[in-house]
Design goal:
The protein is α+β, with helices and mostly antiparallel strands. The protein has helices at about 1-20, 85-95, and strands at about 35-40, 60-75, 80, 100-110, 115-130. It has one domain.
Length: about 130
């Protein structure tokens, strides 16, 4: 009986902790409780839609832009980093652009049980500027 109670307690703890594991992106495997090394495609804003007419004479397409950012957490206590969209916009501004479109995002998630996790976000898109 003691072993059954111990097994149930461990199962309950594992299920509780798995609810704490971050849920990222559509499709693919969810992050594992003990170890993860997966990459997800993500959307910038899932409910956001854009319609840009390319026959507009006031928009000039520039080069492709790319950015990468990292964030980390330690023991569910300390977190650092960012998601990278600001870095992508820095690249746009460096080219003299006003915005970015056709943004794609890949998120690589790694965790090692409850001790450490790292998220690397890769963003890319096409910079544009308004003709003045």
């Amino acid at each position: 009986m003691r072993h059954v109670v111990s097994a149930l307690a461990l199962l309950l703890m594992a299920l509780t902790l798995s609810g704490c594991v971050s849920r990222l992106g559509p499709g693919g495997a969810q992050p594992g409780l003990f170890y993860s090394d997966v990459t997800y495609p993500n959307e910038l804003q899932p409910r956001m839609s854009h319609q840009i007419r390319f026959d507009r004479s006031d928009i000039e397409l520039l080069e492709s832009v790319h950015a990468e950012a990292r964030s980390r957490w330690y023991f569910f206590v300390v977190s650092t980093g960012d998601s990278g969209y600001g870095r992508l916009m820095d690249q746009v501004r460096a080219q003299g652009g006003d915005g970015v479109m056709n943004v794609t995002i890949d998120t690589e998630y790694r965790n090692y049980f409850l001790f450490y996790a790292t998220v690397r976000t890769k963003l890319s898109g096409v910079a544009y500027r308004y003709r003045r």
